[in-house]
Amino acid sequence: LHPTPPPPLVRSCLAYPAMAAAQYNFTTEEVAQYRELFNVTDRDGSGKLNVHEVHRLMQDVGEKLTLARVQEVVDEIDMNGDHEVDFNEFLACMHAAKSKPQGASAVGQLSGAVTKAATIYKVKGAANSEHSISEEERFAFSEHINRVLGPDPFLSQRLPMDPNSEQLFSQCADGIIFAKLVNLVEMGTVDERALNLKSKLTKFQVIENCNLAINAAKSIGCRVTNIGATDLMEGRPHLILGLCWQIIKAHLLNSISIKDHPELFRLLEEDETLESLQKLPPEQILLRWINFHLERGGSDRRVHNFGKDLADSEVYSVLLHQLDPVNCPVIPPGDRPERALHTIRNVQAMGLKPFLKPSDIASGNAKLNLGLIAQIFNFNPGLAQLTEDDMAEIGDQLAQLDLDDAGDTREERTFRMWVNSLNIEGLYVNDLFSDLCYGFPLLQIEDRVQPGIVPWKKVHMNPRGRIHVVDNCNMVVTLGKKMDLVLVNIGGPDIADKNKKLILAIMWQLMRLFTLKMVAQLSGDGTKITDKQVVAWANNKVASAGRSSLSIRNLHDSSLATGQFLIELCGAVNPNTVDWELVTAGETQEDQISNARYAISIARKLGACVFLTPEDIVEVKPKMLFTFIASLWTAELEGTVATGGAADARHRSFSPPRRGPSPPRAAAAAAASAAPPPPPKREEPVAAPAASYTQPAAAPPPPPPKVLSGPPPEPVRLTVGQDESYSSEQISGDAPAQGFKSINGTGERGGFYGSSSNLESAEAEVEEEEWGDD
Question: Which of 190, 183, 251 is nearest to 610 (CA)?
């Protein structure tokens, strides 16, 4: 590993492939590949790999090494004693591994990880960052989409996709495939009447579709981190694959529960209740299910993960033979690839079409193995149905699972999805009451709502026993009162004891406070917002649109049940998003549900992240209606609404992006400077089509309530070239400045579409961080 160190000149020039090739007897192509892999691993761009970057590399390729062991690996490969690996030391390691097998040594472990990483290729991201995407995942997800959405008439021109190509990224760029995938998880989550389904879509219509798909994915529990409409439109592969996996995983695991499969009670361990089994994540239930069949099949093997424990196909052999002994014979001895091929054949013989390859099993791909196990369970769980004796044994427990009030159940789901949408590191809630009763997760949520409020040094990070748990829960209550939450007669023991009503009360107040803070922050001066101001904003917005005289007194107003007012509010935010012919008078419950479902999808289309259900609207649930209106207000203030009036006239139709490098920043700036976009002309408002319901009799509208107001902020200057700059006044309003990338729910602060986006407004590109925090 430690050859004679090269002269300083050579060491300083190892970035040049020819010199590196001569030093370590590599070809220039090999050096270029190693340089690319090194750069991807070097996440901070320092030119050296520290212990955390090498640890991340190990995790990415499935190697389970402790941080301490990784530090040993780094120190052994390090030549100059700086406890990091520079590119020369990296090449020396690869040279040593190529010359002689290294086994489990430091060189063997790092070179082995690099070899695995070589099956992953890189793509350019925002601001020239590099991201890794898996060809195996691209193939598998394309196959899955072909299978589950193939029968969809609208997608007949798109599917099947070639899984060996990059069609997945271009076909998902308008959000329609994602929206339809979400509906496979929970039917009706996306009202497809709200989707823009024309063959030619404008940029604004694509933004609306992508907003709808992303916000709908959040509403079913997907963790959508740093993914926005623009990311989908530009076909960013690593983000598209991430969202694909989130939705596909939710689809495959959706029905793995005691309520959908009561026969899962056969997996109960000694002294375990159905309630505790019900609260296990689906992944843990699947692991227990596999081990149940392994034990029943007489095998001593047990699985603890979906990666290396399945790589030799022995577990698959026993499991499949237990489920279908006729079509799935025991797999004969052989090497891993051969046994993996037999596994795929057995799965196909059962009647399933797996979306992964034998190599994915043999390499221990945990994601794709989880998908295959879920497929097998959903097709044939191999558990006997409940008998009369079984019902006599567990009937009371099964009945107890359904005793919760339906409204409380919907609230629990809403708060759970909201918490998961916050993307708090290390926190994902599967069951609100069981997961929050330890106090620590609630402290994480409080710190997210009001950063810095939690004194973490006083928190029991790993509580041992009830005393520590109650201490944490007491701190939740104490800090909640500091945040002006109303926590009368609520103590730490109530949380620890899983008091559902009180936990729901805490969660509602945290969600409300978070939402109001967002509105106050975005409104300009940070003045505290009240519920009355939220109602006042909604009434003023509808009145200013001039379409309707509808208004509400408060969030208990029974007229909200028809859904008309909420649709009018969405139309007031952007009239082009609503097809008024689909809106009914809401005279029957069926029509009310239809309006409510449409209103929710329109709000998500506008960029609002809402978690309520149509039933919440029809039953006039004030808490949920508050979140709807406040989220819509937040979306408008954030600028996530895809504005543009008659967008069809101003923009050519959207076409899927072509993959290719983005233009250099200097060239983009020069292009922007050479052809500055003209100031947009404000168009006259277009009269909305007549609604299909009878509008209320015209009456003088009541004087508009007072809403939060203040002086407009100073325009922010955005420089895109040496001679040209544009102010925030020029890039706001109904028509964005030509070439400007509207803020549309991505969390990005501006920028220009690059040439790779294939949009008409692709005239220049600047790095995202150039747009100021304001």
Answer: 190
